[in-house]
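Hey,

The postdoc asked me to send both predictions to you directly instead of through the lab channel. I've kept everything plain text so nothing gets mangled by the mail client. Protein one:
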Amino acid sequence: MPGAPGDAGAGPAAAGAAGASADAGAAAAGFQPAVLAAAQAGGLFAVLDGAQFEDLPRALLMGGFVARPLYLDRGDNNREQVITAPHLVWLDEREAGEGGRPPEAVVPALFRLIEARPAAVFWHCAGGGDLLYKHLRGINMVLYPRAALAGAEAPPEPAPAGAPGPVPDSHVRVIFRHADANVMAQTLYALDAVELARFYGPADCLFFAPEPDWAGGRPWLQAPRPEGLPEPGRGALSLSMPTVERMQGMRQAYHRRRIAAYLRKVAPEQTQGMDDKALDAATAGFMAEARGYGVRSESAMGRWSYLQLLTGGQIGQQPAVTDYLVKGDATKTADQRVRDLMHMAAFRAAMGG
């Protein structure tokens, strides 16, 4: 087997981490002025994803921000829920009626807190913060098709028990992480008109900066409310099966781009004769094959794609390999078995095999 580079086993996520961090910093440099200009015009608010901070409530308190948690404290002393809750932040504190700081002071301080993480979504709502707060509380949880849960690559987090409101048998109630810019990038553009109307509610525009791979290479995204939407429905935001399928398609395309970039990096000789379209098609085939063996994570799909590329597609034709993937060590997942294969390949390469 051809030699395996030492860093190939890390997978596409590790291979692209440094570049993603640099891209995020560059995106923030252009994103902040746009947010500041919108905040100066009035009616712009930030929603921060507490799950991406060590202790967001404390950070907001120490920074002197005017903020409100979007999860209610039900008195159960659940610290994890308290510190991971999304928070609505006033960018013009004078709009909160507390005589606070203007956007020129709040926005730079908030961006220092965010540190280029995809941990904020900015909402424009001319009706004010109280109206937006009520709306956002209403979309903290959504109804998700039960049929989409089977075999889901990244199943959504179930909503806490006892959440109010009816749930049809066809759906389950799940947490909607609408403050995560990456989640918004894969959700917003998949919604149909009825879902969009309920999602936007009283808001008319969003600004957010997901990782570049989620934003199609753009540094940040502005999403005005589409014209001609129906009146927002009442009750929970309910996602249809076609919407979830579009979301899944976006996630698969995202992983495919990252794995293809990883293959260009770790297998330059094997990919130099392939244009982007050919490599994309080959990567899609490798990923489909890996899913057929029960592989789920991006890193494991990247490893399988790498092994297939290096062997000209022959590793998947070897009975010993396929038997191990399907019937191997029962204590290991398919992802872990692919990692084993990668280690075996590296060992053979080191021994000159």
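Protein two:
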Amino acid sequence: MNLLLMIVPLAVLSFFFYVRFLDTMKDNMIESLDALTTEMTGSVDLTMGRVNETLTVVVNHPMLYILDEVDEQMLTENPELLEDAIGFLGLVELQSNTELISDIKIYTEKSMLFNQYDAIRESDVIEPVSKIKRSYWYGIFQTIDEDFLSVPSFYMNQYELENNGRLSMVKRIQTSKGDEIYVVVYFSNVYIEAILNQYATFENSTYYILNERDTAISINSKKSLGEYLVTYKSILENDVSSNGFDRVIIDDQILYVTYREINLTDWQLICYIPENQIILGNKILAIQFILLYMAISGIVLLLTTRLGKSIVQRIGVLNQVMKSVKEEEPQMIDHSDQRDEIGELIDSYNYMVQRLERITAEKVNAVTRLNQVELNVLQEQINPHFLYNTLDMINWYASNDQTEEIREVIYSLSKFYRLSFLLRRKWHLRAGICMSV
């Protein structure tokens, strides 16, 4: 019955801890995912910033606009102008010679004018606009007023994908003559995917980048994207926060979703994880924790029970011995050298018994010595000389017929001996009482 009373509260407490542990682990996981998403967004922003810096260097170079104004006659009459153009294209090539930037192109209708010069043609920077007219991003520019566009691989034509890169930033420049120049900085999608995979440390979590048209830019798990596609439209419909995870239902699935805006682009970094995956992972960890907790609690309970029995048993022995003092002489208690409170109490009791025995023995010895002294004094008083003198006195009175004096002497002698015997008996009785105490 006592065991049942201990097990039931333990089971209830374990269940309470199990539920609280699940909630705490879920909250911690969501917080960790949110922190990783923020850190990942910072890395992607930094990457896009580097690409934009490269684009800015090219677009802001004065030579780009001079090339738009020149014609064949100006190049022929001004050789230094041609040298400046070649130096500018060398600078552009140098900007593309990095791990991130895969290529830089300037698409213009004047490409044939410049490419007739071997040095410019070999740089392979200036290309005709005709090479990009079949790309989707070129068509978008014909329908919008903006002059800047972040381009995913889906917007590029086959020529670009095979020769330039998988992602790009494009700047459209309107010339004074009504023509258009497109400065395109191509960069590798592998770099972006490496960032997503680097921070995607939680199993079953999905990170990917979409633009406002729900075109996938990059993703860390194509399998998860096909199973739960959280679009930019669904984010707006569910009012998902960009500062933390929200619990939403998409396609009958409960997901924890957040997103971040990528600077300098119309891209969004989206992260989500299914709720059932969070619960499943936390359940396994929670069960392990509860089993460990119950095992430790069981060991503590066993040790506590044994310790309780030992304490109760020793207190019972002490109580029984102390009760017996009312009827018999106190006895010492045998016990082990346990240095707990009960052991100290037993030691104190044994010390008290030893002290009483020592005091009693000293008292008996003192009474015995006193009796012996008194007896010696008495014996001195009734020694043979005393008895001889008394008998001699009686004889003298008898010779003179002094009967009355003889009677008084004999009466005094007998009274003296009677009192002496009574005192001796009293002393022996007192000694016996002291011995019993």
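Summary for protein two, as requested: The first helix runs from residue 2 to 59.

Thanks,
C.
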